[in-house]
Each structure stands twice: as structure tokens, then as C-alpha cells.
């Protein structure tokens, strides 16, 4: 009998790539997404590729939406084998002083409460057969840029919720894992697809020498829901091209390497670095101006 998966936020980006990969592995794929136009687009895309696909408009922060979605899936297929809790939203980047309680709640309710709600209602139908939950967190659970408090908190909460669910649901033979993607270029999985504008510097700062693709994440999810991963539960997997293990100290070598990646010219980058050193050491504005003129001549 065909296995059935639910992918929240499955119309675009990482979720769409996950749904496609699972569909190609024989799963029926339910796309649960709040974006109706994108959801219909992805449903048609999957069906054109021979995937049994079904779109249900769903706001994962709404208990009624989630309950209705899960019931419709079970009524249609009679089983649920994999739940991928991928739906999530970003944050505007306002400082903590400017953030509103409404904005905080919107991010938490979508990114974290949505995982809890979908898990709560899927358990009802999965507990007699067993299955897998894959919760999509983020490396922002471990590291942050300024002014990302709601998003980082929501993603950290997903990892904690994952191990709690894994312990609680093990009696039903339900495995629960989370994954934390780093920088993923989702351009090709948008609706419609977009052109990527990444630079050599974007790619080069990863240990793997490239920014991640949604397909990278989808490959990991496909493994985690498979029988080959049957001894894995309660843990988080970081998939970030090695970014979170790097120790970064801003020194001359880092500047040199960054310039080389940016311009793809070792000698030119070396000359720019030397010029930066001269400007830094200049003791008056006239000296700085002369060094800038020197730089312009290099260009």
C-alpha cells in the first residue's frame, strides 16, 4: 500500500523540494500551505511528474485548519506515514525595542505552535501504525544575527519539542527528529521560479564551497523517513555546509581570502588588501585621499 506524507509549507522552497523527493520515492504527498495559488501550482507540478498529490489550504497556526486538514487526509487515504512540519515564516528584523507582542505571537504561533498542532492531530491517526515526524528547525536555533529574537526562539523551541515528542510518542512506534538547515537558496523552488543572484563569496565561505539547495535538505528528509533510519529518534541534524563549525576571526588572512573569493583574482585581491592596510595606517586625510586615488587607479 502506498505511504502517505503531509508536508506543511509544501508549496514553495524547501517544503516543495521535500514533497517532490518523497513523491518520487512513491509517497502520496499532501501539500498543506496557506498560499492557495502556490499550492495549486505545486499540486499540478507534482501530478505532471506522476506524483499522487493533493493540496489543502492550511494555516498551521489555526487549530481548526489543522484538524480539518488531517481529517481530510485520513478520509482520502486511510493512513498517514510521515509528517514533515516545515511551514514557517521569517521576521522583519526590528530591534527588540520595536518588536510588538503581535509580531512575536505571529512568528511563534506559526513556526512553533504549528508544529505542536500538526503533531497533536496526526498522532490520532498514526498511533496504530507508527510513523515519522520530521520537524524543520534552523541553524538560527544555535546562532543569530541581530534582531531575530522571535524567529530564533521559535526554531530553538522546535528542537526542544522534538525530543519531548520523541519520548512521549515512542510507545506508538512514532519516531520524531528535527533538522536545522543553514543557508539554502530556494530560488528555483519559488512560484514562479526565480533567478539566483549568489556570489562566489556566498558560496566560498562554506566548507563545502557552495550554498545549500532545497534538494540537499530533501535528501536528508528522505533518509530520515525511511526504514534505514529506524534506529534514529529524538535528535537534531544540522545541514549547513559546515558553517556552524567555523571559528571566524577577522584578520588580514580572512580579508585576503574574502577578497579573493569575491574577485576571483589572487593578485588583484592582494593589492586591495595592501591598500586597505595603507589607508588604515594613514595619519591624515590627505594621505587617505591619496590612497583612495591609488585604489581607483587599480580599478
Compose a concise summary of this entry.
This protein is α/β, with parallel strands linked by helices.
Judged by helices, strands and strand pairing, the structural class is: alpha/beta
* CATH topology-level name of the largest domain: Rossmann fold
Q: Which sheet architecture does the biggest sheet show?
A: 7 strands, parallel
What is the gyration radius calculated from CA atoms?
Answer: 23 Å
Would you count the extended β strands for me? Answer: 7
How many distinct folded domains?
2
Distance between the termini: 65 Å
The arrangement of helices and strands along the chain is EHEHEHEHEHEHHEHHH
Query: Could you estimate the helical fraction of the residues in percent?
Result: 40-55%
Mean pLDDT across the residues is: 92
> Low-confidence parts, pLDDT < 50 over ≥5 residues?
none
Give me the oligomer status: single chain
Report what the structure shows:
The protein contains ten helices and seven strands. The chain is α/β, with parallel strands linked by helices. The chain has helices at residues 13-24, 36-48, 63-77, 101-126, 149-169, 200-204, 214-224, 252-263, 266-281, 285-298, and strands spanning 4-8, 28-33, 53-57, 82-85, 131-136, 174-181, 236-239. Helix 1 (13-24) packs across helix 7, helix 3 (63-77) runs parallel beside helix 4 (101-126) and helix 8 (252-263) packs across helix 9 (266-281). The chain has a seven-stranded parallel sheet, sandwiched between helices. The chain folds into two domains: 4-245, 3-Layer(aba) Sandwich (Rossmann fold); 252-298, no CATH class. The longest helix is centred in the middle third of the chain and has 26 residues, at 101-126. The protein is elongated, with a radius of gyration of 23 Å. Strand 1 (4-8), helix 1 and strand 2 (28-33) form a beta-alpha-beta unit.
Amino acid at each position: 500500500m502506498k505511504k502517505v506524507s503531509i508536508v506543511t509549507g509544501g508549496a514553495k522552497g524547501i517544503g516543495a523540494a521535500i514533497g517532490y523527493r518523497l513523491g518520487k520515492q512513491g509517497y502520496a504527498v499532501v501539500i498543506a500551505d496557506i498560499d492557495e495559488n502556490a499550492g495549486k501550482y505545486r499540486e499540478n507540478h507534482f501530478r505532471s511528474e506522476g506524483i499522487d498529490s493533493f493540496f489543502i489550504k492550511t494555516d498551521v497556526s489555526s487549530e481548526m485548519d489543522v484538524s480539518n486538514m488531517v481529517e481530510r487526509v485520513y478520509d482520502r487515504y486511510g493512513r498517514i506515514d510521515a509528517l514533515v512540519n516545515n511551514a514557517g515564516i521569517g521576521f522583519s528584523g526590528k530591534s527588540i525595542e520595536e518588536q510588538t507582542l503581535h509580531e512575536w505571537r505571529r512568528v511563534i504561533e506559526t513556526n512553533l505552535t504549528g508544529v505542536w498542532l500538526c503533531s497533536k492531530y496526526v498522532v490520532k491517526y498514526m498511533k496504530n501504525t507508527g510513523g515519522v515526524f520530521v520537524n524543520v528547525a534552523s541553524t538560527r536555533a544555535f546562532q543569530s544575527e541581530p534582531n531575530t529574537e522571535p524567529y530564533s526562539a521559535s526554531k530553538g523551541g522546535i528542537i526542544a519539542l522534538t525530543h519531548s515528542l520523541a519520548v512521549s510518542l515512542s510507545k506508538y512506534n512514532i519516531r520524531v527528529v528535527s533538522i536545522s538547515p543553514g543557508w539554502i537558496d530556494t530560488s528555483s523552488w519559488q512560484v514562479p521560479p526565480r533567478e539566483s543572484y549568489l556570489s562566489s563569496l556566498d558560496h566560498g565561505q562554506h566548507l563545502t564551497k557552495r550554498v545549500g539547495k532545497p534538494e540537499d535538505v530533501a535528501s536528508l528528509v528522505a533518509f530520515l523517513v525511511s526504514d534505514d533510519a529506524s534506529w534514529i529518534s529524538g535528535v537534531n541534524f544540522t545541514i549547513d555546509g559546515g558553517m556552524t563549525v567555523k571559528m571566524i576571526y577577522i584578520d588580514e588572512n580572512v580579508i585576503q581570502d574574502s577578497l579573493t573569493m569575491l574577485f576571483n583574482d589572487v593578485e588583484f585581491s592582494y593589492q586591495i588588501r595592501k591598500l586597505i592596510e595603507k589607508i588604515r595606517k594613514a595619519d591624515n586625510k590627505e594621505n587617505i585621499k591619496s590612497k583612495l586615488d591609488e585604489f581607483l587607479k587599480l580599478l
